């Protein structure tokens, strides 16, 4: 399995552009790059620009994966640039992104279902708990968009890989993929986000492994807080995740999937689990008692290391780069022990 990085949290990527970023990733000995948006590569989806960047990645021996946009119609107003790409038609904007990336030979494409408002505190920061539209209605609308996109993806030999994002459970992502068709859709497995939904990351890995084609990989620190439980990001091997147990089903079912480290920027991205809130608990109908108990166990296991002030402190650029490089080194070691040397 190849181990690379998500560029959205790669120090210097935003300021210096994709060619510089690919060079730096190669210099660090990583295997590839995951760009969150096609517009980072070319704001106009210019075929020449996209082809140059794809060729640059190939020349460096790097994998190149790129994102499209959100597929939940209730989240799309927060991405007006996609609608502009389609001359007012959001689905046409998505079609143009898919066609442009496929034309450059990029066929593993990221998407997600909603957003998290980091400037808002409390339950309603997460789109899962919007009061103007239920989460069930958001999922149903998302499923309709997937049906519309499926023929385009099949025509171009692409997979649109839905992330286990902060607002959605792995149970729900699996159902979306199974219903829309694994020949056109897959999963981007975010190992840290499943814990925001109070899921055991190893159990989640077993659920998503048959459909996983991409990933956002990072470890998690857990601490009891005034909200319930706080999830913080940590380099792989420095948190609560049992990496040999988590990677084993991926090695078995998804050996060609890439492992892209999603790092940190400015801080460790605290997200609360409001485990004592009856509204929060009712919003997780798939959550089992076993997984709820496992997350509590993992939180207690980290208690001796949980320094809330340190976890909430700003991070430096050196820490942010080390987060990526330390994670890569650790994961390569684990993969070797599993018989899948990176």
UniProtKB/TrEMBL annotation:
InterPro entries the record matches: IolE/XylAMocC-like, Xyl_isomerase-like_sf, Xyl_isomerase-like_TIM-brl
Signal peptide: none
Isomerase listed as a keyword: yes
Protein name per its UniProtKB record: Sugar phosphate isomerase/epimerase
One GO MF term attached to the UniProt entry: isomerase activity
Domain Xylose isomerase-like TIM barrel: 23-264
Domain of life of the native organism: Bacteria
Keyword vocabulary terms for this entry: Isomerase
Gene3D superfamilies membership: Divalent-metal-dependent TIM barrel enzymes (3.20.20.150)
């Amino acid at each position: 399995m190849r181990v690379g990085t998500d560029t959205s949290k790669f120090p210097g990527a935003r300021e210096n552009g994709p060619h510089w970023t690919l060079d730096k990733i190669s210099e660090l000995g990583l295997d590839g790059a995951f760009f969150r948006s096609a517009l980072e590569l070319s704001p106009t989806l210019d075929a020449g620009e996209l082809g140059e960047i794809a060729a640059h990645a190939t020349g460096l021996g790097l994998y190149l994966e790129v994102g499209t946009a959100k597929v939940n119609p209730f989240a799309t107003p927060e991405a007006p640039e996609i609608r502009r790409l389609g001359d007012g038609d959001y689905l046409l904007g998505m079609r143009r992104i898919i066609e442009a990336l496929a034309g450059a030979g990029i066929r593993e494409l990221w998407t997600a279902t909603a957003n998290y408002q980091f400037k808002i505190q409390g339950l309603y920061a997460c789109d899962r708990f919007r009061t103007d539209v239920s989460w069930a209605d958001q999922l149903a609308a998302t499923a309709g968009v997937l049906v519309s996109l499926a023929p385009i993806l099949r025509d171009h030999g692409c997979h649109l890989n839905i992330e286990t994002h902060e607002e959605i459970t792995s149970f729900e992502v699996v159902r979306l993929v199974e219903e829309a068709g694994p020949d056109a859709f897959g999963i981007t497995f975010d190992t840290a986000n499943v814990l925001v939904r109070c899921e055991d990351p190893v159990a989640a890995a077993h659920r998503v492994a048959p459909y996983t084609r991409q990933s956002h990989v990072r470890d998690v620190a857990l601490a009891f807080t005034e909200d319930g439980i706080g999830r913080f990001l940590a380099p792989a091997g420095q948190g609560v995740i049992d990496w040999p147990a988590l990677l084993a089903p991926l090695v078995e079912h998804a050996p060609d999937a890439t492992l892209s480290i999603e790092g940190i920027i400015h801080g460790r991205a605290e997200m609360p689990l409001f485990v004592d809130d009856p509204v929060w608990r009712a919003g997780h109908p798939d959550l089992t008692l076993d997984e709820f108990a496992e997350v509590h166990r993992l939180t207690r296991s980290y208690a001796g290391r949980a320094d809330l002030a340190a976890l909430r402190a700003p991070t430096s650029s050196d820490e942010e780069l080390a987060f990526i490089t330390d994670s890569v080194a650790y994961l390569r070691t684990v993969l070797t022990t599993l018989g899948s040397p990176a």
